[in-house]
Amino acid sequence: MSQAKKEYKRVTTKSLVDMKSAGEKISMLTAYDYTLAKMVDGAGIDVILVGDSASNVMAGHETTLPITLDQMIYHASSVVKAIERALVVVDLPFGTYQSDPKEALRSAIRIMKESGAHAVKVEGGKEVKESIKRILNAGIPVMGHLGLTPQSIYKFGTYTVRAKEEQEAERLREDAKLLEKIGCFGIVLEKIPAQLAKEVAESVSIPVIGIGAGKHVDGQVLVLHDMLGMTHEFNPRFLRRYLNLYEEITEAISQYISDVKSVNFPSESEQY
Ligand code: KIV
Fold first, then answer.
1. What's 13-241's CATH class?
2. pLDDT tens digits, residue range 50-106?
């Protein structure tokens, strides 16, 4: 007999742990603005990530490195205004938490106070442990992010699958255990072998959300603009496109231009 799923009026960090215990998969998508966040929340998503992928998707930068704390707060506060149910997690952008734990805490406090978000996400394990602990000590929930960590792209040199070699896989296992031990409420695993992701998800009690990490994790996250097909140049194997909005939007705009030029718009009924 299938068990009825628990209804969450508001998703909290505790709900996510409960979902993992109950074997309910967690759904997570990015959003960076009010209008799309309203649709994502209304559809019933569990977690909205105001990702620093806004640097690529919204600002057109090649990497996530240039986006600033002020810009992340702007995106996050627009998203928070739209939300009735989802948990809102915001990426701490590059350069706002790596150099010292006090600065990390100041950055996290600004996000929480100025945007109204519910948690922050930080890339890395052992090397940012002190920063994460400082943020957690102030009562701010932290989500970790291991595997392909785009803020370190210049160290990796490529966006290929991470942790294929045993040494890097072992380091990732240790980092995941460390993040659990110091009190993170969840971990994103990006672009690693599915078998390793499965092992990690089974080895920790906190939810593990995958992107390009296979199905044996506790939930999935995608970049909204990618899964809606608004972007079309980024085609990793893990990306499932649910729409082709790039084509649909371009066609609609072409039609509008043609209607304006031919005075087919506005019609009698579209004027006063
Ligand atoms: O910034 C982002 O969108 C992310 C996801 C890819 C997990 O970190």
1. alpha beta
2. 999 999 999 999 999 999 999 999 999 999 999 999 999 999 999 999 999 999 999
Alpha-carbon distance values, 160 to 25, 72, 87, 171, 260 (Å): 26, 26, 30, 18, 45
Please name the residue that has the structure tokens 């499932």. Answer: 240
Half-sphere exposure of 207 (CA within 13 A, CB side): 29
Residue of 24, 123, 180, 190 marked catalytic: 190
190 is catalytic: yes
Distance 178 CA to ligand 1 centre (A): 21
Q: Which of 53, 61, 123, 143 to mutate to test the pocket of ligand 1 (most atoms within 8 A of CB)?
A: 53
What pLDDT sits at residue 3? 52
49, amino acid identity: L
C-alpha distances in angstroms, 214 versus 34, 170, 235, 238? Answer: 30, 18, 16, 8
Q: Where in the chain is the domain with CATH 3.20.20.60?
A: 13-241
